[in-house]
Amino acid sequence: MEFIKSKENKLYKTIKKLKTRKYREKEKLFIAEGHKFLDFKEIPKAIILRDGDDRYQDKVEEFVCPKYIFSESLFNEISSQENSQGIILIYPMKESSIASIGDNIVILDRIQDPGNLGTIIRVSDAAGYKDIVLLKGSVDVYNEKTVRSSMGSLFNMNFIYMEEDELIKFMAEKNYKSTATALREDAVSYTDIIPGSKNAIIFGNEGQGVSERLIEVSDSKVIIPIYGSAESLNVAVATGIVLYKFRELLV
């Protein structure tokens, strides 16, 4: 393994740049930190270990890719975790295609929190949904916190980015029944959902919810009743409840 201790090193500079969405999109690469990623079959472009930390040496050797050891000070500068496990992996972004989109899709309207997005990816995967459409204004799927929160589920998903107009046209042309989560008087309880043969299930921004336009064009609106004193539910929790109800009815 090559030992790196200089800030002038090309790989070090690349990793620093990959912390920005613009550069990630340009290079089609993203950062994943933590030993959990060694459990997945995906082959990284590179593995970086912290100097003096040899806990994962045997596991790392199983991967056919370049491997590097960064000095402790250099590693700490590229780590995004307060108590890092001493391993960082660089992955190529997955190629996604609208042509392969399935009959039941998850729509995310301007989700802002990377932790929420990562959890939504994870619960969508767990509930058997493989296609997630993100509207403009949503946090980046490959944000480091999103990657970490997804716990590897992002490797299993098909991510499509769309503008709102494009999504509305797409749902109409492909005959999706659209269901929006909404705090509306005409919304039905999630327990009374009636799925279609093809479904687009829409979840909205943490503060503003689903956009008014998407609500208006949706075929149905659903709400999760709150029986206690909480003002609202976290969007990732709400997503899990609704998606599992859909899954129960689709089986």
Automatic annotation (TrEMBL):
<dbReference type="Pfam" id="PF00588">
    <property type="entry name" value="SpoU_methylase"/>
</dbReference>
<dbReference type="InterPro" id="IPR001537">
    <property type="entry name" value="SpoU_MeTrfase"/>
</dbReference>
<feature type="domain" description="tRNA/rRNA methyltransferase SpoU type">
    <location>
        <begin position="105"/>
        <end position="244"/>
    </location>
</feature>
<dbReference type="InterPro" id="IPR053888">
    <property type="entry name" value="MRM3-like_sub_bind"/>
</dbReference>
<protein>
    <submittedName>
        <fullName>tRNA/rRNA methyltransferase (SpoU)</fullName>
    </submittedName>
</protein>
<keyword id="KW-0808">Transferase</keyword>
<dbReference type="GO" id="GO:0006396">
    <property type="term" value="P:RNA processing"/>
</dbReference>
<dbReference type="GO" id="GO:0003723">
    <property type="term" value="F:RNA binding"/>
</dbReference>
<dbReference type="InterPro" id="IPR029064">
    <property type="entry name" value="Ribosomal_eL30-like_sf"/>
</dbReference>
<comment type="similarity">
    <text>Belongs to the class IV-like SAM-binding methyltransferase superfamily. RNA methyltransferase TrmH family.</text>
</comment>
<keyword id="KW-0489">Methyltransferase</keyword>
<dbReference type="InterPro" id="IPR029026">
    <property type="entry name" value="tRNA_m1G_MTases_N"/>
</dbReference>
<dbReference type="Pfam" id="PF22435">
    <property type="entry name" value="MRM3-like_sub_bind"/>
</dbReference>
<dbReference type="InterPro" id="IPR029028">
    <property type="entry name" value="Alpha/beta_knot_MTases"/>
</dbReference>
<dbReference type="InterPro" id="IPR051259">
    <property type="entry name" value="rRNA_Methyltransferase"/>
</dbReference>
<feature type="domain" description="MRM3-like substrate binding">
    <location>
        <begin position="12"/>
        <end position="88"/>
    </location>
</feature>
<dbReference type="GO" id="GO:0032259">
    <property type="term" value="P:methylation"/>
</dbReference>
<dbReference type="GO" id="GO:0008173">
    <property type="term" value="F:RNA methyltransferase activity"/>
</dbReference>
